[in-house]
Design brief:
By secondary structure, the protein is α+β, with helices and mostly antiparallel strands. The radius of gyration is 16 Å and the shape is globular. It folds into two domains: 80 residues, VC0802-like, CATH 3.30.2130.10; 64 residues, VC0802-like, CATH 3.30.2130. Strands 3, 4, 5, 6, 7, 8 and 9 form a seven-stranded antiparallel sheet that branches. A two-stranded antiparallel ribbon has the order 1-2. Helix content is 24%, strand content 38%.
Length: 157
């Protein structure tokens, strides 16, 4: 969790981004490098361009992932992770509406390949991280931080 200037702790999820040439097999190679370090990919987004692909990853072990990807330039970005208690009628539309009312812009979003407390989790890149966290929490939404990202059955894998 990130410490803010006011001393409060803000949940955040760390996203790692790398640029890969558009060549067959490079994504598999990246995945194997992470697997070799026992790092699990919990979310992935790939943006394809003519020459390169931007690969965005949320992993369960950021330091080990950075070691595994040390031959690449790795960029870190803070994301907001929010549980979607769909059984309570709270889904993506509710979260986006809450952020819109607070005038917080969502740059992009994608789901985690994991659940928290049985609920799906959405990670968001927003223009005002701390405000988004405060607003979402004030609306009773549960947020997750990097410490909450655990791959089930990862012990000894």
């Amino acid at each position: 969790m990130a410490e803010t200037a006011r001393g409060s702790v803000q949940p955040k999820v760390c996203q790692l981004s790398v640029f890969l040439e558009n060549r067959v097999g490079l994504l598999l190679k990246l995945s194997k490098q992470l697997e070799h370090q026992k790092v699990h990919i919990c979310a992935i987004s790939i943006v394809d361009t003519a020459d390169v692909a931007i690969v965005r990853l949320v992993v369960d072990n950021v330091p080990a992932a950075k070691t595994a990807l040390s031959s690449l330039t790795v960029y870190e970005t803070e994301l907001v992770g929010v549980e979607l208690p769909v059984e309570q009628g709270i889904g993506i539309t509710s979260v986006l509406g809450t952020l819109l009312r607070a005038e917080i812009n969502v740059h992009y979003a994608y789901p985690l390949i994991m659940r928290s407390s049985g609920n799906p989790v959405l990670v968001l890149h927003v223009d005002e991280h701390e405000t988004a966290v405060r607003i979402l929490q004030s609306h009773g939404l549960s947020l997750i931080g990097q410490d909450d990202i655990v791959w089930e059955g990862a012990e000894g894998s």
